[in-house]
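Lecture 7 notes: from sequence to structure.

We start with a single chain of 139 residues. Read the sequence below before looking at the structure.
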Amino acid sequence: MMSSQLQGGMTLVARSMLGLIFLLSAIGNKIPNFAGIVENMQTAGVPAPQLMLVGAIAFLIVGSLSVILGFWARIGAALLLVFLALATYYFHAFWKYEGQEQQMQMIHFMKNLSMAGAMLFIIANGSGPFILDRRVGEK
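Now the structure, written as tokens:
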């Protein structure tokens, strides 16, 4: 049996690793490259790309912080799941490509699929020990 302290620590590290990719995507790419990202979204056929990008940034920041901190993590994971579904549909439709580009898009598709699975796991099972929800509930 694993000790609760070790399990809690590993879960916190796992949530942080999972949430970090989404948080950095928002603050390190989408916000500073807003105009370019909107252009890419228009090319991909995303409706109302400016509004959708603002929504994506909000989902990424709120969802990732929620998962990392374990504060309403099921809701945060649901936000990230919605982001993943839309991003995968619009940007990683590997079946539309051939050759090397198809391989690259399939890799991104599968990466997003695995992260979507992790979000479903959090939605189904919660975020584990060492969560902010518990701290807030104690006060």
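The radius of gyration is 17 Å. Keep this in mind for problem set 3.
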